[in-house]
């Protein structure tokens, strides 16, 4: 059966991108299509099931069609123990879609560039962005950036309990859940009725019925204690909530966003280290010839992607086609190396381009 012309063109584009990344010193690597599901579920929780194809292998147990390349490439790198290193790859990834169409297929190509190690994270961030942008300059894409590190720093600076901070950090990548928790902790919304009734009960186990499941009674009692402590904790200060709202709603050209963030830092000194990293990144981008005044900074950018990005995040979009997903995306994921490196951390940043979208946009030009 003959492949469609666009599919042939997309594969050729993937190979061209690989050559472009290789010219930047990247080593080409491959990753198995079937990845161990347990590892991905441990990393992202059961939410990943709604976005990935999971099946059962008689020898390897539960496996998943790779939802992306980053996790297997990080695992490979951490096992090899090589620093610094640059890698490139190209191949299919698989994601469930609520409604599949030409721009959002359940199977599509990715071509990627990953950079591990190095002495200067700001320079590495700028290199990855510039490498991807320079691979497709003819498309004249709109660039947007964010920084998950700023959001995490704002959460860490809240005047509240450690469990509340941990819950907010865990849900940074789930905006609706994050907002619901923030509003509850701020006293803007009451406890859910069911939880309020449970905590008010003199004996929560009185009408609970038989004990089933894997949790012991002691574990359940400990969790109830945590919920009581949370309900008794004082509400978040209004000024701190306002600061997080301002950070998440920030949308401006990168230089203007820096000025706004410097203003926010006056009331939130904990933002200082993350803001300093952002300033150094902007300087590194300028040294590489990136017109930073044309780059949009969005405070919430990157919060609906897979949850390994913990710092710099970016995307390249077709401004004339807002219906399309980003043509390229990427970011920093140092925390992921700690998980897969069993405690050893390596600075890591990378990004991917979707060859089918590149071909589609060139065909429309």
TrEMBL record:
<dbReference type="InterPro" id="IPR045864">
    <property type="entry name" value="aa-tRNA-synth_II/BPL/LPL"/>
</dbReference>
<protein>
    <submittedName>
        <fullName>ATP phosphoribosyltransferase regulatory subunit</fullName>
    </submittedName>
</protein>
<dbReference type="InterPro" id="IPR041715">
    <property type="entry name" value="HisRS-like_core"/>
</dbReference>
<feature type="domain" description="Class II Histidinyl-tRNA synthetase (HisRS)-like catalytic core">
    <location>
        <begin position="3"/>
        <end position="174"/>
    </location>
</feature>
<dbReference type="InterPro" id="IPR004516">
    <property type="entry name" value="HisRS/HisZ"/>
</dbReference>
<feature type="domain" description="Class II Histidinyl-tRNA synthetase (HisRS)-like catalytic core">
    <location>
        <begin position="236"/>
        <end position="353"/>
    </location>
</feature>
<dbReference type="GO" id="GO:0016757">
    <property type="term" value="F:glycosyltransferase activity"/>
</dbReference>
<keyword id="KW-0328">Glycosyltransferase</keyword>
<dbReference type="Pfam" id="PF13393">
    <property type="entry name" value="tRNA-synt_His"/>
</dbReference>
<keyword id="KW-0808">Transferase</keyword>
């Amino acid at each position: 059966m003959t492949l469609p012309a666009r599919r042939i063109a997309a594969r050729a584009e993937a190979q061209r991108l690989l050559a472009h990344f290789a010219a930047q010193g990247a080593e080409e690597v491959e990753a198995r299509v079937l990845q161990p599901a347990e590892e991905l579920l441990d990393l992202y929780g059961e939410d990943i099931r709604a976005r990935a194809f999971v099946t059962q292998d008689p020898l390897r147990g539960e496996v998943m069609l790779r939802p992306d390349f980053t996790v297997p490439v990080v695992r490979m790198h951490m096992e090899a123990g090589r620093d610094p290193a640059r890698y490139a790859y190209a191949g299919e990834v698989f994601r469930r879609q609520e409604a599949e169409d030409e721009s959002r297929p359940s199977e599509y190509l990715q071509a990627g560039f990953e950079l591990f190690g190095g002495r200067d994270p700001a320079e590495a961030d700028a290199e990855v962005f510039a490498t991807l942008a320079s691979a497709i300059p003819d498309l004249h894409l709109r660039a947007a950036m964010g920084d998950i590190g700023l959001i995490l720093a704002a959460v860490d600076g809240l005047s509240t309990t450690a469990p509340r901070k941990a819950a907010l950090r865990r849900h940074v990548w789930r905006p609706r859940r994050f907002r619901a928790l923030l509003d509850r902790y701020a006293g803007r919304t009451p406890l859910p009725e069911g939880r309020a009734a449970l905590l008010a009960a003199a004996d929560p186990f009185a009408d609970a019925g038989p004990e089933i499941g894997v949790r012991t009674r002691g574990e359940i009692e400990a969790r109830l204690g945590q919920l009581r402590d949370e309900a008794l904790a004082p509400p978040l200060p209004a000024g701190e909530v306002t600061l997080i709202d301002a950070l998440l709603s920030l949308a401006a050209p990168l230089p203007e966003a820096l000025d706004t963030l410097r203003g926010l830092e006056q009331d939130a000194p904990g933002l200082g280290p993350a803001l300093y990293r952002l300033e150094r990144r902007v300087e590194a981008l300028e040294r590489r010839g990136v017109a930073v005044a044309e780059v949009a900074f969005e405070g919430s950018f990157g919060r609906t992607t897979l949850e390994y990005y913990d710092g710099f995040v970016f995307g390249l979009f077709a401004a004339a086609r807002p219906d399309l997903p980003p043509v390229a995306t990427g970011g920093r994921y140092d925390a992921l190396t700690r998980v897969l490196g069993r405690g050893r951390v390596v600075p890591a940043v990378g990004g991917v381009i979707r060859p089918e979208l590149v071909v589609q946009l060139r065909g429309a030009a």
